[in-house]
Amino acid sequence: MFKHRAQLMSRINGFFMFFPYLLLLVMFAVVPIVLAASVSLEESLTNPGGGFGNYLFVLQDFRFLPALINVSLFLLIYLPTMLIVVAGLSLMLDSIKARHSVPLRLAYLVPAGITGSVAILVWYFMLEPTYSPFAPLFAEFGWTQGTDIFNSSNLIYIFALMTFFTGAGNWIVIQYGSLQSIPDELLEAARIDGANSLQVAFRIKLPLIRKYLVYMLVLVMAAGLQIFVEPYLLSSSVYPGIAKDWSLNQLSYTLAFLGSNLGAATALSLMLLVVMLGLALIVIFRTDFFDEAKTKIKES
After folding, report:
1. According to the model, what pLDDT value does residue 180 have?
2. Which candidate, 53, 51, 32, places its Cα nearest to that of 41?
3. Best CATH choice for the domain 62-286 from the list 1.10.3720.10, 3.40.190.10, 3.40.50.1110, 3.40.50.720
4. Residue 218: which of 287, 165, 149 has the closest Cα?
5. What does the pLDDT average to over 100-125?
6. CA 178: distance to chain centroid?
7. pLDDT band at 112; cut points 50, 70, 90
8. Whole-Å CA distances, 287 to 72, 81, 275
9. Where do the domains of the chain lie?
10. Rounded mean pLDDT of 205-211?
11. How confident is the model at residue 59 (pLDDT cuts 50, 70, 90)?
12. C-alpha distance across the termini of the chain, in Å
């Protein structure tokens, strides 16, 4: 009887702990998605018939394919860079002495505070040959004017650079925290068995934080797929028109607020949501993210 009451109280407490999240999920995720699905079928001046014609309108828009290519190439550069560099620097930070790790962690967090318009301004001065401290180095490559660097062929690399430095610091600290959860006894046992530092890092530590890296990959992929701030601010302030409708989110913004076609804009947003959910589910289930079994460690 006592055990039954304890289980019941545990379930009730769990429900009350989960309920605030469930309420927020319904209010700010489920309801907006349902409303967006309704709006995406509404009539507009460009599509008087409404319905799924809004989705077809987006797919046939001359700006859609270039934006899709831009975002795809951006992700191909951005995602592997984030994953490799963050994992590598986290392992390095975990291997150094404790008294040096605190200032390094703070140093990693500083770039994360520079986002939005501030990041655009900072990187403009860093990459503009007229003002950049790297101007002598740029001159060696023949880059003496801003247009030598800020041109359409380099935008993918510029945006990948901006987003990497504004987001990597936070993730390095998070992954460093995940490494702290590894028992010292396990690491000591590996060293006693003859494993060197590289073997401990790649055969012990990385497999044990794999799920944290998968979690990071999903969130970084979602953020990269929705890139908007960097191309929008660069195109609207620093170099007008250089990245107009460069990303899919920019195209959605243009359709909604400049083209007065809210249905098509919402349809594009929902397509992004479906693609992101599909990619996230593939990554999660291909990596056994929800597997409760202990992560397997590669044999030496």
Report:
1. 87
2. 51
3. 1.10.3720.10
4. 287
5. 74
6. 18
7. low
8. 22, 19, 18
9. 62-286
10. 90
11. very high
12. 50
pLDDT of 294 higher than 60 = no
- Cβ atoms of 47 and 136 closer than 8 Å: no
CA dist 250 and 259 (Å) reads: 12
Q: Tokens 């993918």 sit at which residue?
A: 156
- If you average pLDDT over every residue of the chain, what do you get? 86
Q: CA 178 to CA 168: how far, in whole Å?
A: 15
**Residue for token pair 């180095």:** 137
Rg (CA), the chain: 24
CA angle 238, 243, 249 (to 5 degrees): 120
Give the Cα separation of 234 and 225 in Å (integer). Answer: 18
Residue whose structure tokens are 């008087």: 48
Provide the CA 111 distance to its chain's centre, in angstroms: 16
pLDDT at 130 over 90: no
Alpha-helical (H) ranges within 96-145 are: 98-109, 116-127, 135-140
